Structures are given as C-alpha cells and as structure tokens.
Amino acid sequence: MNIAIDTSVVLSENGLTVQLASGRTGYFNAYWLRDNCPTSFDSQTRERTFDIFHLDAAPKAQSTELTADGLTVVWNDGHRSTYPMDFLERYAKGERRQDPANLPRRAWFSDHYANIAKFSQPKLLADKAEVARWIEALLVEGVAIVTDMPDSDEGLTETVRLIGHVRPTFFGEFFDVRTHIKPTNLAYTAKALEMHTDTPAEDLAPGMQFLHCRANSVEGGRNLFLDGVAVANDLRKEDPEAFRLLSETHIPYYCEHDHYDVRSLQRVIELDEYGAVTGVTISQHMADIFDLPQQFLDAYYPAFCKFGRMLQSDKYMMRFRLNATECIVFDNHRIVHGRAAYSATSGERYLRGCYSDRGEMRSTYRAMVSESRFK
Ligand SMILES: [Fe+2]
C-alpha cells in the first residue's frame, strides 16, 4: 500500500515518487537516495565516504518534505538528507550521465590529409585551450599532427604529458623505429608494414599512439593511415553478417620471443555500449593461429578477408610523408596504420614512439571543459 506523506511525494515499497519542477514525475529507489545523500561525499577528496554495505536495515523514508532547498527525507536510521531538485531532475530519466568527452566520431577517408588537424607544439605548451582543441580532434577524428617538435627525446615526453602519462607496454616506455640489425619486429626493418593497430596481443592494447619523426630523408617509406570507423561502418552497410562476425568473435593475438609470450583475445571491430563502431583491432603479424571450430571458420575467414581487403582500399587509405619535426598522434583502437617499403641506404629514417592512455586523455579533457559536480 502506498502512503502519501506530502502531496507531491508518494512513498512506496522500495522508494518514493516525487513531482519534479519540469512537470515530470520521478521515481527514486530508497537505497539510491540514501547512498547519494550530499553528505555521503567528502568535500575535500570528493570521494564517497558513506558505507551503504553496513546499514543495519534497508533504508526507508520515515517522512519527507519539499521546500525551496529541495526534497528532505528523514530516514529510519534518523539520518536527514536534502536533495537539490536539479540533482533529482538529472537522474530521474535513468539515463547515463552526460560525458563531455563522448564527442561524436567523424569518419574520414583517403583525402583527409589536406584537412588533418595540426597543432604547433610550442603553442600547445603555452595554451591550455589549444590542448583542449587538440584532444577534441583526437576524440572526433582519431588523428592529429603536432608540428614544430624539438629534435629531442624530451620533446616527445613533454608532448605526451599534456594529455596524460607515457603508458608502457611489454617492450618498455618508448620505442625507436629504424632499421635494426637483428630485428624482433617488422617495424624495425625497411620492409613494407601491412595495415595494423599496435600490440593487440596486450590485455588492453595501448590507447593513444605518438610517432615523433626525428629524421626522414629516405626514398619511399610513405606513411599509410586509415580510419577504421569509416571502413567498419561501410562493412556494416555492405555485409551485415560479416560485420556481426567481426564485431562479436574474439580472435587470438600473440607476440612471442625469447623472453616474452603475450596473448590476448580481441574483436576485430569494436563497438560501444550503444552498438556504434568505436574502432578496430587488426594485425596480421600478431594474429595467432585461430583456435576456433573449423566449421565456424568457414564463415569467419571470408568475412575477415573481406574486411582485410577493405583495409587496403584507396577509398580509405591516406598516404603522406611524415616529416622531421612532426609527431603524429592517433587512437590505436581506431586508426589503422602501415608503411610502404623504403630504401635503407638512401638516407636516414627515425621515428621515436610511445603511447598514452585514452581514458586519461578523456579525463584531461573533462577537467578542462566541464563543471564537475563538486565545483
Ligand atoms: Fe605500428
């Protein structure tokens, strides 16, 4: 039986219903209300200090009152909570909290190089608003070029620190892409590199990749980049069954040498919670032998190869030459990259690279552009 205490508040078995200023009626669960009393959060650390696991009894409202300050509830343990009405409005719909870093992705194609977002490193170091614009480009298009980079190791580190920290992988914090005498990776040869995302064998493949070009005087070696979101969205339209297979099936990736044996299971096409494509994970040189039922592979392999061929298509492939003093920054879970072969004796080619975390970049962005609950 429902008990009316205030004309605008109705108590029920598990919570209460309140008339909101917007005209909407909002239902709120009693546990949720008790857990999120404004006094539950420490004003200095901004962390929740209230411990709902140790309430003696399930929370029940004993009385309620609507005032100009909001909804006041007196609970069965004697605690009094007052909730501002705009707080209740915000959560009444039961929708995810608005995230300023969740910007819509804009797919791009082979002609993107003329429009690629560019940011000068000295300006980024001097102007936080410019850093916010840089991150916006990375969230929306997944790629941007930082220009005017100093020819130093520190130059790359200080660029990364504008959006996060250097995120190590199993081969360390930084990597140097140039021809090696005893290569452990195709990147360290002058051969062509097929289109790939980096180190999918890791449990969580690194997020943002930085490639700082320190020297590039060789013949050949053009950079190849494409937007995995654009390709996967096209596959979804052209061949929904292939799209389903690639977005639902986990395939094995590996990276193995004398002192490491890294393995993971990943989906080639990655989706967000709403089913939209966020990016891709692809690497033929790190794809392990598919340990899936052979009959299933009758369907999977054609889909995998179809997508792989699309990743070679001129429709998507942005071809350009990264110059010394430039650093290309891109989302390693979205942007697929490769390299044409080059002549190792024709000059010098040296890229220094590293990664940072995507979640950390989003955090940096939110702190720059939004008013948090505690400000
Ligand atoms: Fe790579």
Q: State the helical fraction.
A: 10-25%
| Overall geometric form | elongated
Helix segment tally? 9
> What integer value in Å does the Rg equal?
26 Å
Round the mean pLDDT to the nearest integer and report it. Answer: 93
Structure description:
The chain has helices spanning 30-35, 85-92, 121-126, 128-140, 153-160, 228-238, 240-248, 294-310, 358-369; strands at residues 3-6, 9-11, 15-19, 25-29, 61-67, 70-75, 80-83, 118-120, 143-147, 175-177, 193-196, 208-216, 223-227, 250-257, 260-267, 269-271, 277-280, 318-320, 327-331, 335-339, 349-356. The protein starts with a strand and ends in a 6-residue tail after the last helix. The mean pLDDT is 93. The radius of gyration is 26 Å and the shape is elongated. The strands form 6 sheets. A 6-stranded mixed β-sheet has the order 8-9-19-12-21-10. It is 24% helix and 29% strand. α6 packs across α7 (240-248) and α7 (240-248) packs across α8. A hairpin with a 5-residue loop joins β3 and β4 (25-29). The longest helix is centred in the C-terminal third of the chain and has 17 residues, at 294-310. By secondary structure, the protein is of the alpha+beta class. Fe (ii) ion binds at residues 187, 196, 198, 337.
